[in-house]
Design a protein that fits this description.
The protein has 322 residues and is of the alpha/beta class. The protein is built from 10 helices and 17 strands. Strand 12, helix 9 and strand 13 form a beta-alpha-beta unit. The relative contact order is 0.13. The chain binds 2-acetamido-2-deoxy-beta-D-glucopyranose (NAG) (3 copies).
């Protein structure tokens, strides 16, 4: 007769106490294994909680060293971004990070409601704390990248700002958009004034546009600069820094775009560029990943979002110090 597990237990080739010990040991081993795997699978960051976006390694040893998962801890992003062992997952944590305590009241302006997943796309966070809020009746907004979607611009006009909107890709000439106090120009944002022959677009630097429009709005601080220009932000931003225009921007909301084909080093450079404006006094108060724009980063084994809506305010341009 073959030995069934039951027969094995009761057959008297080995005594019953020994078998009980073996069985108990097996159960213990199973429990320990379950605990270990359960822990490894437990999503431990905002990013990996979203089941559609999961990093290939949920374990982030460097991150733990720099306390990046702790809101109230100070994260040493500079050390992290300089690290030899930086991973894609850690880089993404930097893009996702935000300084929650820096703005008490942040409102999203504009955006369109999407499906699958449902949510707002293209919205821009504006900090309306008294210390930094655009002042209705006298605020100035520059908005780059409209793509026939005027909700941000119309809302900022309704809030009480004068809005200058720019987009060379819509086939529209300079005009005033209604409803609202919105002036449209068919210029694109770049690092210099040039003509883009591929598309027949006029590209201009921020400082040059500000200079040209000064007769209309004076040499005023730009209370909110919106940038949503499909990768050209990486070209325009270094010039905004170099030209000194950063010191004339009170708040900035920008969609940054990552490239799933690009290297970890390229992404590190982009992260360092953002870090450099933070070191110049731009305080991040919001970051939202774009769940409709997700990719497989083939060069560093990560599934992740390719777009992040990040907002900053300039700590050197506070209306009142707190
Ligand atoms: C967070 O924001 C506060 C201002 O509310 C600022 O003092 C602080 O330096 C910021 N922290 C980081 C890590 O940027
Ligand atoms: C290029 O754009 C200008 C206006 O911005 C227009 O007058 C001109 O006809 C365009 N050229 C071509 C080849 O489309
Ligand atoms: C991502 O790309 C890698 C390499 O091309 C491939 O092995 C992996 O299966 C892809 N992952 C997903 C989830 O598509």
């Amino acid at each position: 007769m073959p030995l069934s597990p039951r027969n094995w237990y009761f057959s008297n080739r080995i005594n019953i106490t020994k078998k009980t010990v073996i069985l108990a040991f097996c159960i213990l081993v199973l429990c320990v294994l379950l605990l270990i795997f359960g822990w490894a699978w437990y999503p431990n960051t905002k990013f990996v909680k979203d089941s559609r976006i999961r990093s290939s390694s949920d374990r982030l040893p460097l991150m733990e060293r720099y306390n990046a998962n702790c809101d109230s801890c100070v994260t040493n992003w500079d050390a992290l971004l300089a690290s030899d062992t930086l991973t894609g997952g850690e880089l993404v944590q930097y893009f996702l990070w935000t300084n929650h305590s820096s703005c008490q009241l942040s409102h999203d302006f504009g955006g369109i409601m999407m499906n699958n997943p449902s949510g707002l796309a293209g919205q821009k966070a504006v900090c309306i704390d008294k210390k930094i809020a655009p002042q209705p009746g006298k605020c100035l907004v520059y908005s780059f990248g409209i793509n026939n979607e005027w909700s941000f611009d119309e809302n900022m006009a309704r809030y009480g700002c004068e809005v200058f909107a720019f987009d060379p890709s819509m086939g529209l000439d300079k005009h005033d958009h209604t409803p609202g106090n919105v002036h449209f120009y068919n210029w694109g944002l770049g690092d210099r004034d040039e003509h883009d022959n591929r598309f027949n677009w006029t590209i201009r630097s921020l400082s040059s546009i500000h200079e040209t429009l000064a007769p209309l709005h004076g040499y005023k601080i730009i209370d909110y600069l919106k940038i949503d220009i499909e990768y050209s932000e990486w070209i325009a931003l270094p010039d905004i820094i170099a030209s000194g225009m950063l010191s004339k921007i009170r708040q900035m909301g920008m969609e940054i775009h990552l490239d799933s084909q690009d290297s970890l080093e390229q992404h590190r450079e982009w992260a360092k560029l953002l870090r450099s404006i933070e070191k110049m006094g731009m305080i991040r108060f919001d970051s939202e990943y774009n769940p409709w724009f997700v990719g497989n980063f083939t060069q560093f084994h990560l599934m992740g979002s390719l777009g992040y809506e990040i907002a900053w305010y300039n700590s050197q341009l506070l209306h009142v110090t707190t």
